Every structure is written in structure tokens, then in C-alpha cells.
Here is the input.
Amino acid sequence: MYRPSARFRRTEAERQDQLLSWKRDDVAFFAAGACHILAFAFMETYPDAGFHPVGLWPCEATDPSHVYVTDGTWAFDHDGWTLQSELLKVTRAAEPLSEFQARPIHMDLDTFCVRHHHRPRQLFAFDPWERALRYIAQFPAPDANASGSRGRQGGASSALTMNVHRVG
Here is the structure.
């Protein structure tokens, strides 16, 4: 089952100390604090795969609280491949008062960071781009999963196990 980004929220200490935040495992790092970096790194890695970045805006918020990529059916974020419908359902259930709305993001990473108060690459403890590319490489490419058999370990799966986590 999908693990919503709220499950991995940074502590106040992690928000204040970028080195402490950096030391979190990849799932936590890309769930909370660097989801936008992961989404845009995915877009650079697979520019022709038919995906686009989407933000989840809490009710009446001016900035999204989570960013992922989707082709309208599948989504990719900190938790690997997930059906977008499951990502939205689980995320909304985890924080029902937020009334999240998914909205496409129509700008580049630098512009997004400025307009939506997200940390730009140069303000992390280290450049998160290479870390994001390494993380993305642990999952099957979008075209490798056109058959719809995305499983938690990257192999064939039952219809009930739709998330793809690390390959291997």
C-alpha cells in the first residue's frame, strides 16, 4: 500500500539543519523536503514518457505540500510507482482536513521553487540532483512497465500490489 508523504514529515530540527535532513533515508528525504527535486529529476530522466509534474495543494493553500509526476494513470514519487488514484485516496485519507487538490505544474524547477517557497537545489546540504537520479534508477523505467505489471520489487505482481519499490 502507498505510504503518504505525511508519514515522513521532517522534524523541526530537520527543517532547521539541512545536514540532519540530508542524512534521512531516501524515502523520507524524497517524501518530505525534496519531493519537487525528485519529480523534476524524473522529468529530465524520462522527458518523452508522457509524464508531467503535479502538486497537491491543501485547501486554500498557495503552495503545494507534495509534488509527484503522473501520466494520468500512474504516479511516481518517494514511494515508487503507484496508481495515481491510490496515491490521492491514501494521501487524502491520511490528512482529511487538507482536502488536497491535484494541480499540474507548468513551470521549470527554479521558477517553481521561487513561486512556491520550495528549497532550491543550491540550498540543500549537498546538491540533491544526483541523489534523485540514483534513486530513480532503482525503479523500472516507465516504458518498461507498459504492461501494467508494476510490483513492489519490480517484477510481476498481483492486481492488489501495484506499487513498485526498488528493483533488486
In short: The helical segments are 12-16, 18-22, 26-31, 35-45, 84-94, 109-116, 128-137.
